[in-house]
Amino acid sequence: MLYSRLLLPTLKENPAEAEAVSHRLLLRAGMIRKLASGIYNYLPLGLRVLRKVENIVREEMNRAGAQEVLLPAVQPAELWQESGRWQVYGKELLRFKDRHGRDSCFGPTHEEVITDLVRREVHSYRQLPLNLYQIQVKFRDEIRPRFGLIRGREFLMKDGYSFHVDEADSETCYGEMYRAYSRAFQRCGLNFKVVEADSGPIGGSFSHEFMVLADTGEDSLASCAACDYAANLEKAEVAPPQGNPAPAPGAAPEAVATPEVRTVEEVAAFLKVSPREVVKTLIYETEAGPVAVLLRGDHEVNEVKVKNLLGVTELILAGPARIQELTGAEVGFAGPVGLNLPLYADQAVMALAAMVTGANRDGYHLIQVHPQRDLVLTQVADLRLVTAQDPCPRCGGALEILRGIEVGHIFKLGRKYSQALKATFLDAAGQEQYLYMGCYGIGVSRIVAAAIEQGHDADGIIWPLALAPFQVGLIPIALTDAATREATFRLHDELEAAGLEVLLDDRDERPGVKFKDYDLMGLPLRVVIGPKTLAKGQAEVRHRRSRETVMVGLDHLVSYLKDQISKELHG
RNA sequence: CGGGGUGUGGCGCAGCCUGGUAGCGCAUCGGCUUUGGGAGCCGAGGGUCGGAGGUUCAAAUCCUCUCACCCCGACCA
What we know:
Layout: H1 21-28, E1 32-36, E2 39-42, H2 44-63, E3 67-68, E4 74-76, H3 77-83, H4 85-88, E5 94-97, E6 103-106, H5 111-121, E7 130-139, E8 154-164, H6 167-187, E9 192-196, E10 207-213, E11 219-224, E12 230-232, E13 254-257, H7 264-271, E14 279-286, E15 291-296, H8 303-310, E16 315-317, H9 320-327, E17 343-346, E18 355-358, E19 364-369, H10 371-374, E20 379-381, E21 399-414, H11 416-420, E22 424-426, E23 432-434, E24 436-443, H12 444-454, E25 456-457, E26 460-461, E27 472-476, H13 482-497, E28 502-504, H14 511-521, E29 525-529, H15 531-535, E30 538-543, E31 549-553, H16 557-569
The protein binds one RNA strand through residues 9, 11-19, 34, 36-37, 90-92, 108-109, 138, 140, 142-144, 146, 150-151, 155-159, 209-210, 218-219, 303, 316, 405-409, 441-447, 475, 477-481, 509-517, 519, 528, 530, 532, 540.
């Protein structure tokens, strides 16, 4: 490919709109351009990378026995009404009417459509299992699109759905997808971690996310240094407290004046106690009514755990007026003693012998509160976020808290959609049964950004070979030199004939400009040819990642490059 | 949606506070010279200062409204 024929507008300066590294470099390297918030054009270079990811994912899905389909992006409201999600999906679902006034939406995901297809076409256990996937543009009207391709509104996704006669078979498929995903992300050259994830309201006993490790990631995860336990922070368990969980009660609770002392830090400092002895009382509104959650002052609530324990989908911290109404006191003085609300305590609270709580009275706190003697608890559970100070819940080893970008998510759907949409089959006994389903997603365009978050330096992108838009960049030092020109074009043709992807910079630019652009684009191998190298019958090959250069004789340059590429692609 | 910020040639910015003929760097076009890490000189083109309304003799600058975008929080591939 000749540079002069490509639409490849590189930028010297960082666009003001881009903050994230991948966003900046995608723009600067001329791979994407923004059309609207969270909506991007892919230019030729960006599309080449996107296609590479897509093909790796496709190959691994096919290898795992899945079949590719293509479902419509525009979907009728009826299906969503049938599944019940037309009401619950929220504003991320882009809705509109067609010319006849029929409610429609742009598909953010395809459970409804695929289940509809399968219920029409599959009637017998003999047709099962079935694993279908597609690679398609999705639209989710995100609250806040950001970081370029990492969270766009329109994005390319691989979504797959499997159908089974029973739960055991769906779990077999889950395992196959787990392995296929791992292979795909490995081939993409990503440093990733598989973590246990919250399976959410859909239910199911387990779910996994595939996280590309990057400090700029939007997700946090806990990972054990000693064993293979790793979980999304919102899922990560806290090991039950060790030692004596029920210390003997001491003196009776006593109210003390704490004027204008509200936060945990202020209370701890005022009463000269450790923040861990100050218990905070969080008042939440849920669709099932208000509740109170107790946590040690030095701990952070995990709202996902609270939601799951309560079985609610709505969990919002109560506002000042509502707190006043429920506790009789201002924010900062709520406490569990005598509070007429369902009371849920984090397990760590139970290990305290004497704690400080709000007194439900402005300007007062209670001291010497004993959890078992003084509180009427609805339930005690693990309700907080783990920290790097907590031991691993599996092996007791040290936990690390890392940041990651979610590029894949697999979970079991069970019979949620098959029941809602009445997707059934006849089993061997002639009985009508609901299908068991699994669901598997990969953020294809997000992988492009994640690979850059993981592979870059001050000069630009460093692509893994498998994703690079071109494998080799070819730079002539002086195209005005006839010998150089002739040798460069001949080499370009030879490389292409050998099946290598090569970009020849035939622009009338000075070498420095080309070097900068190639570092920015991040092609793995760069070949420089000029009068000086030609005089020795050689070319200079530079590895983008290591920055090492070697002189290679022109007569075996093609085989040298082929070797380098196959070495990196196949280990 | 709440909080913070930015809109001035294609890109990055100054000018705004204190109203008075719209500027700089890069990019673009033409010419000459250059050619191993974002070249030099000469010349040229390109902007209703996000939009609307208002104040004023006069608005990029002051006021009101509005739109777009970015960053921090609640959603997810």
